């Protein structure tokens, strides 16, 4: 059974299933979902809890399988948690998880909670994950998109009976807040809690939020790629400045930009050869949010434009490694800025109309 994250609270009020699988890369959302399941379980008498973290190829799965069948003398019910940080349980793990799923049916003394990172489509259709999903409840915990972050912040403030002012000032406050916590939901959560401690319930002004919220942005080099592909020029500028200030390696930033350009070019070549766009994207292992961004950007990028971008990426590769190029800045970060802006502006152009 698949369940949206927003449906979990209502589901738990109706009763518990013996098996839950959480998968996603946002620590705060995974933590909150797991906490909600644990709280509901404790309220129903699950007083004992064991935790197992799968690490390495030689993990002993027999301990996990045995845990479900062993209660202490003082506990009637238990929670067994299995964390798989890699998302790859391996051959033995796959068999063990399927066995766990089979044993979950009718087991009212053990609640099993499996926690995984974000999974690709191929993994989600694999035998072990399908078994977990069919035997219990799976919840996919997606990151909050940048465009949805102001509304997410507003909803979290509402939970503690606080709100921003109506109208333009309120929207400006939420946008400011979102900019300050760029890519870091856990930091956003902490700053929202801080506002509850500093100010009473009710309306918050821009000045109150500005004075309370720290610059806790986590500038993620991979989220930079998403901003570039979305054509968000101002956000790209801000993220590059943040990455430089945080001491990120120039070669990693270049690799992220160059790899997106190469992937765009490969997909474009496949389309020119007659392959449908969905097939070309799958062959290049482009999925999720990146898939949607590619679908939006590709009509805006001609083969000539992509050829120019590939050449620019080659030039910048040399610059960040200490070489000089005519017409380009000698400074690696300045060259990266130019390359990122070239791609972002092309991706942000209005797509040509089909005749």
Q: What is the beta-strand fraction?
A: 5-15%
CATH superfamily of the largest domain: P-loop containing nucleotide triphosphate hydrolases
Q: CATH top level of the largest domain?
A: Alpha Beta
| Distance from first to last alpha carbon | 45 Å
The structural domain count equals: 3
Helix content: 55-70%
The overall pLDDT, averaged over residues, is 87
Rg, Å, rounded: 24 Å
Strand order of the largest sheet: 1-6-2-5-4-3
Proper CATH architecture of the largest domain: 3-Layer(aba) Sandwich
| Class from helix and strand fractions | alpha/beta
Task: List the secondary-structure elements in sequence, H or E.
Answer: EHEHEHEHEHHEHEHHEHHHHHHHH
Which regions contain 5 or more consecutive residues with pLDDT less than 50?
Answer: none
* Shape, principal axes of CA atoms: globular
Main pleated sheet: 6 strands, parallel
Number of strands: 8
């Amino acid at each position: 059974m698949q369940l949206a994250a927003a449906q979990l609270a209502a589901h738990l009020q109706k009763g518990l299933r013996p098996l839950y699988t959480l998968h996603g890369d946002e620590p705060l959302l995974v933590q909150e979902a797991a906490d909600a399941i644990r709280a509901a379980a404790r309220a129903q008498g699950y007083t004992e809890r064991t935790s197992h973290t799968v690490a390495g190829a030689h993990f002993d799965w027999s301990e996990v399988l045995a845990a479900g069948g062993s209660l202490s003398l003082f506990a009637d019910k238990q929670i067994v948690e299995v964390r798989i940080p890699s998302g790859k349980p391996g051959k033995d793990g796959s068999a063990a998880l399927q066995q766990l799923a089979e044993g979950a049916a009718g087991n009212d003394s053990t609640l099993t909670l499996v926690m995984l990172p974000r999974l690709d489509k191929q993994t989600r259709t694999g035998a072990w994950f399908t078994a977990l999903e069919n035997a219990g409840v799976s919840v996919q915990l997606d990151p909050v998109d940048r465009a949805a972050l102001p509304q997410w912040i507003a909803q979290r403030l509402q939970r503690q009976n606080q709100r921003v002012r109506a109208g333009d000032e309120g929207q400006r406050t939420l946008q400011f807040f979102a900019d300050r916590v760029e890519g870091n939901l856990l930091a956003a959560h902490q700053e929202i809690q801080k506002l509850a401690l500093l100010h009473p319930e009710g309306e918050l002004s821009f000045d109150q939020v500005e004075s309370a919220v720290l610059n806790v942005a986590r500038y993620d080099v991979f989220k930079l790629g998403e901003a570039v592909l979305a054509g968000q020029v101002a956000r790209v500028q801000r993220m590059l400045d943040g990455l430089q200030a945080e001491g990120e390696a120039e070669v990693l930033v270049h690799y992220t930009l160059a790899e997106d350009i190469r992937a765009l070019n490969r997909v474009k070549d496949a389309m020119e050869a007659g392959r449908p766009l969905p097939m070309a994207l799958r062959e290049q292992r482009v999925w999720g949010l990146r898939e949607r961004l590619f679908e939006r950007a590709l009509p805006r990028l001609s083969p000539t434009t992509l050829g120019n971008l590939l050449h620019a990426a080659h030039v910048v590769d040399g610059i960040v490694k200490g070489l000089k190029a005519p017409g380009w800045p000698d400074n690696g970060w300045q060259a990266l800025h130019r390359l990122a802006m070239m791609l972002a502006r092309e991706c942000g152009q209005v797509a040509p109309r089909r005749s």
